[in-house]
């Protein structure tokens, strides 16, 4: 009987081949649009490539990587990107968790609030950026509201000290609802019996939050933080639209991905652009591993 049961549970070759057949479209798409570009970028990073005129390429060794160490624009873009990530990720995570806690309570009309909060997430990023450009105009909605309240107004688009912060505010507003939905799903998965037992022991709302809710959301928070870091490191479209592709004013909205675009499609320096892209990918991977270590230490 044991032998028969083992034989029945053993996967059959035909079933395995059918499984791979269903997986084939996904594998092909990932291979063509993810793995292949990574391999091409890895190769291009070590070459000097000339596209205009007669196509030419030559092995360049590590010169593309040593070149970026002395490129001031690389360091400016990296500084802007790190500043943007350091501000957006914590704030959007806290706001997402706060909104999820509010919507998880027994509020009247909470389903409508969920729809309203989630609308920015399903709206095109380019459309949202154009709307905020209008709002950030010197005579736009935001400055008009600030003037009405007697507060100082800002040149949101033209001031180097404010331009990146304007993009930061816009992206926090538009991305926090996505993570709110993720948190909301996780909150509804926490057993109600835990809260009932804590209430019997006289636990306050704060005690329930600290000792039940937050520990139960640890893995979800790790996912939210990692996805937030990966997304913010790849900031491009908002910066491109705000600065019309220049990264201005005074390189204040220049991000690493925008810099890669400029070198690849404006300067046509594909090898150097690929080198910067690999450094960015390495930075994202290291940051993700650090987050994984941090959350695992928290678990212990």
TrEMBL record:
Domain of life where this protein originates: Bacteria
Keyword Transferase on entry: no
Any GO BP: transmembrane transport
One cellular component term from this protein's GO annotations in UniProt: plasma membrane
Matches recorded under InterPro entries: ABC_transporter_permease (IPR051393), MetI-like (IPR000515), MetI-like_sf (IPR035906)
CDD domains membership: TM_PBP2
PROSITE patterns found in the cross-reference section: ABC_TM1
Membrane topology of this protein: Multi-pass membrane protein
UniProt keyword Endoplasmic reticulum present: no
Subcellular location: Cell membrane
TM stretches of this protein: 20-47, 84-103, 115-135, 169-186, 216-236, 270-290
Key words of the record: Cell membrane, Membrane, Transmembrane, Transmembrane helix, Transport
ABC transmembrane type-1 domain ranges (all copies): 78-291
Protein family (similarity comment): Belongs to the binding-protein-dependent transport system permease family.
The protein, known as: Carbohydrate ABC transporter membrane protein 1, CUT1 family
Organism annotation: Chroococcidiopsis thermalis (strain PCC 7203)
